Amino acid sequence: MQGIKRKLVYVSLFEGIAILATTLGLSGMTGHGMQDSSVVAVAASSIAITWNLVFNTLFERWEARQAVHGRSLGRRIAHAIGFEGGLTVFLVPLMAWWFDATLWQALLMDLGLLVFFLVYAFVFNWVFDRVFGLPTSAVRKTQPA
To answer: Which of 27, 19, 17, 14 is nearest to 109 (CA)?
Structure first.
């Protein structure tokens, strides 16, 4: 599976699981109820979907230009850190506002989620690629005979 279909399946699966995990995590970290936390989880998911499409498009363009193809451990770690780092920039102000917390408190909340999501993104991407195959950008191009 390639192209936009791959991206839509990826985002739908990833974010569906993420909304549930984020709701549970935020509810536990903040003491706010599931209903309150689910609003932030859905908003965060919407932001993450947009960021995911932008980040993965840029990452795959970069990846396609690399001399070494495939997705090594290092490349997967760089992908997860790049994605989550960018997402943090968007989510900390949102959580501070919604939970009436300081930026520092929101950053600590986000760091709790970040630790979970770094592992989750790594594992999810690995499993997704094993189930659906690598994207074209990561497949070694064959040399014409």
So the answer is: 27
Query: Which of 139, 43, 127 has the alpha carbon at shortest distance from 93?
Result: 43
Q: Contact, 21 vs 27, CB < 8 A?
A: no
Which letter does DSSP use for residue 142 in this model? P
Distance CA 99, CA 22 (A): 14
In sequence order, which residues have a C-beta less than 8 Å from that of residue 22 and are 6 or more positions away? 37, 40, 41, 44, 45, 113
Instruction: Summarize pLDDT for 46-103 with one digit per residue, the tens.
Output: 998 899 889 999 999 998 898 888 888 999 888 888 988 898 999 999 999 999 999 9
Residue 24: C-alpha distances to residues 10, 39, 47, 97 (Å): 22, 12, 18, 19
User: What's the pTM?
Assistant: 0.67
Q: How far is 18 from 44, CA to CA, in rounded Å?
A: 9
Query: C-alpha angle with apex 47: 43 to 52, nearest 5 degrees?
Result: 140
Helix (H, G, I), strand (E, B) or coil at 71: coil
Q: Determine the Cα–Cα distance for residues 30 and 38; give it in Å rounded to an integer.
A: 12
